[in-house]
Amino acid sequence: MLDLYEYSVNTERHGMNNFTSPKNISNIVDDADTVVSFLNNAYIPRPNTSDEAGEMFFDVSSNDVVEKVLATALQVYLDTTYKTVTMEKLRISIYKIVVPKKKYKLLTSKLINASVSQWHEFNVLEASLSWIEFSETNNGILLVCENQQKETIPIEDCGIVDFKGREQFRPFLVSFYQSGKEKEFPAIKIRDIESTSNLHERLRRSMQESIFVEVAGQFAAAQKKMRLNISQNIHGSRCDKHSLYIRFKDIGWNLIIAPEGYEANYCGGECSFPLDNNASATNHATIQTLVHMMFPEIIPKPCCAPNKLKRLKVLFEDERHNVVLSHFPNMIVQHCGCQ
């Protein structure tokens, strides 16, 4: 998933032609706004479990966002270090378990190169869609390994890594979703933060005295200080964008895997008469400025606020330990104006 995140960010930043996309997913990544990887939970006791070799179970119901599913792929790793059979070609078939140990439905089957250690991808969208709609039908999937004569071979002899293998090579499911609606940032609890009044007072004093603002807040997980690097003293300046770098761990958001931090920026400065073109003022702000001059005790000045923001792609771990790649709108200030 980290490789997928880096590919997605680089593609957005530099364009498709400068990078080689992961196999079979380049177009899907561009269309999807959320990607979720599901862990293989075959080892967790549950109703109808069969403990059959090659059986895998993925709880896709843990994705609580109802969206359009663009694709779902099973990723399995073949490690030649553990392969005991000599043939260079093996057939891998993936079945949906309809009734454990009794009824199976073939989802996909293909001949793979078994002479090289690598990941292999299998389309299991049909099963994923049925599990999302009818979660009670999710009995998992079964991986079967055969030689070219269609003789079944134990998956460990084929070199297929199961849930007992090395963690970085265990099977997982990846689903690509498209919603077309704005997402809220992952809810992360922050405790013991300073009161708003104390924080406001410290910010006010710091901005008056220095170009470097240090906000000492106690956060639940990190118990660290958050440092805000302010590009300049904004007191008395015109409305403009200022630099603000947020490092997620410094504010206790340890579930964020990537990026480590980002340039969030912020808007600051005065919206005073006359509002020139650089103020990017709305018509309402222009009128409010004039009224403020007439009734300063009643009508406040317009506010300096973002009028153009950019999305941010974030890789994080959800409450069920699934790794999620999603982009969130309105995270990066690109331009400010008087409103």
UniProtKB/TrEMBL annotation:
<keyword id="KW-0964">Secreted</keyword>
<comment type="similarity">
    <text>Belongs to the TGF-beta family.</text>
</comment>
<keyword id="KW-0339">Growth factor</keyword>
<dbReference type="InterPro" id="IPR001839">
    <property type="entry name" value="TGF-b_C"/>
</dbReference>
<keyword id="KW-0732">Signal</keyword>
<dbReference type="InterPro" id="IPR015615">
    <property type="entry name" value="TGF-beta-rel"/>
</dbReference>
<dbReference type="InterPro" id="IPR017948">
    <property type="entry name" value="TGFb_CS"/>
</dbReference>
<keyword id="KW-0325">Glycoprotein</keyword>
<dbReference type="GO" id="GO:0005125">
    <property type="term" value="F:cytokine activity"/>
</dbReference>
<dbReference type="InterPro" id="IPR001111">
    <property type="entry name" value="TGF-b_propeptide"/>
</dbReference>
<keyword id="KW-1015">Disulfide bond</keyword>
<protein>
    <submittedName>
        <fullName>Bone morphogenetic protein 5-8b</fullName>
    </submittedName>
</protein>
<dbReference type="InterPro" id="IPR029034">
    <property type="entry name" value="Cystine-knot_cytokine"/>
</dbReference>
<feature type="domain" description="TGF-beta family profile">
    <location>
        <begin position="224"/>
        <end position="339"/>
    </location>
</feature>
<dbReference type="Pfam" id="PF00688">
    <property type="entry name" value="TGFb_propeptide"/>
</dbReference>
<dbReference type="GO" id="GO:0008083">
    <property type="term" value="F:growth factor activity"/>
</dbReference>
<dbReference type="GO" id="GO:0005615">
    <property type="term" value="C:extracellular space"/>
</dbReference>
<dbReference type="Pfam" id="PF00019">
    <property type="entry name" value="TGF_beta"/>
</dbReference>
